[in-house]
Amino acid sequence: AARAEARAISMEMLSGFRALRNACPMNIRRKPGAIDLPDGVTDDVARIETMWKDALARSGGPFLFGDFCAADAMYAPVVNRLEIYRLTEDETVLAYMERVKAHPAWRKWQAAALAEPWIVPEDEA
Question: Could you please report the per-residue DSSP string of 17-52?
Fold first, then answer.
């Protein structure tokens, strides 16, 4: 059942959250700060918060399904978005985000992103 749920929320990440993706490009270098949000972003954030809190409650954490897995990796760009655009104040969600950011895979990904010399102007919200 947990594996099916992990696949389902992973597929939702691949196919959903258009408002969040369009309004809040993932950008490791961006200085954190809120922006004006178009319709739909707060609904996307609320859905993500609910999914994460439900999965964490069922698994007991520290990650969505206990150990770090593909579902956590797939939501790494969302962790960045929620942080840099200041989109959540939920303590459970913020604690989960900190655990993801402390994972060696995140740190390696972040270091590689910060080392990139180029900038994509349309991803600078």
Answer: -HHHHHHS---TTSPP------TTHHHHHHHHHHHH
